[in-house]
Amino acid sequence: MIGKLTGRLDYRTADHILIDVRGVGYIVYCSDRTLAGLPGNGEAVSLYTDMVVREDLMQLYGFPSLVEKEWHRLLCSVQGIGAKVSLAILGTLGPDGVSRAIALGDWASVKAAKGVGPKTAQRVVLDLKDKAPGVMAMGGTVADAMDGPALDAVEVIEPAPTSKRKTTPKQPSGAAAATAGTLSALANLGYSPSDAAAAVAEAGATWPDADEAELIRQALKLLAPKG
């Protein structure tokens, strides 16, 4: 399985790009939002990838963050959602928008994506609401996961050597770290994952630049009994 590609952006079309990795070209399908955020042709590019293999099909889908990749995987698990519709949802809302819409039960926002009807949007929210806290606690872009701009490399997952150097996974930073920390704090206070995720999603939308302490305060206000 190919989990990440790092190479040079050779060309792009309306729905996919070609990444040149040591002379081998990989066609990678991306959302409109991801395509808009990529560098120019000939420049270095890195994407997490999800590979779909069927009897008559083999395609790679690319994502700038693990959160977006995970939402794609989960969206594709919902009845009536294929890779094309999943990319449309992610392209319309972005991974943070998907997290927020599903955590808050906002199926109308999901319905705004091309090819998504009201019943499908409601099914997405219903099927994935319990998954939102776990995905929201994830974080990290490809840049965060790399020590430097390594060119012309394909990520290969191999068992770690037992007697060699130890590597420590990089932790989420910025907004992702604040979200993860707030969800953990609310869980420790006894709030359910779904209630915590909804509060964090709403607080994060209102105070997008809040640090962890501020996000916890605002989420607790939202969770406080009304009346």
TrEMBL record:
InterPro entries: DNA_helicase_Holl-junc_RuvA_I, NA-bd_OB-fold, RuvA, RuvA_2-like, RuvA_C, RuvA_C_sf. GO terms for cellular component: cytoplasm; Holliday junction helicase complex; Holliday junction resolvase complex. It is found in: Cytoplasm. It comes from the Bacteria. One of its GO terms (molecular function) is four-way junction DNA binding. Keywords: Cytoplasm, DNA damage, DNA recombination, DNA repair, DNA-binding. GO terms for biological process: DNA recombination; DNA repair. The RuvA-RuvB-RuvC complex processes Holliday junction (HJ) DNA during genetic recombination and DNA repair, while the RuvA-RuvB complex plays an important role in the rescue of blocked DNA replication forks via replication fork reversal (RFR). RuvA specifically binds to HJ cruciform DNA, conferring on it an open structure. The RuvB hexamer acts as an ATP-dependent pump, pulling dsDNA into and through the RuvAB complex. HJ branch migration allows RuvC to scan DNA until it finds its consensus sequence, where it cleaves and resolves the cruciform DNA. Homotetramer. Forms an RuvA(8)-RuvB(12)-Holliday junction (HJ) complex. HJ DNA is sandwiched between 2 RuvA tetramers; dsDNA enters through RuvA and exits via RuvB. An RuvB hexamer assembles on each DNA strand where it exits the tetramer. Each RuvB hexamer is contacted by two RuvA subunits (via domain III) on 2 adjacent RuvB subunits; this complex drives branch migration. In the full resolvosome a probable DNA-RuvA(4)-RuvB(12)-RuvC(2) complex forms which resolves the HJ. This is Holliday junction branch migration complex subunit RuvA.
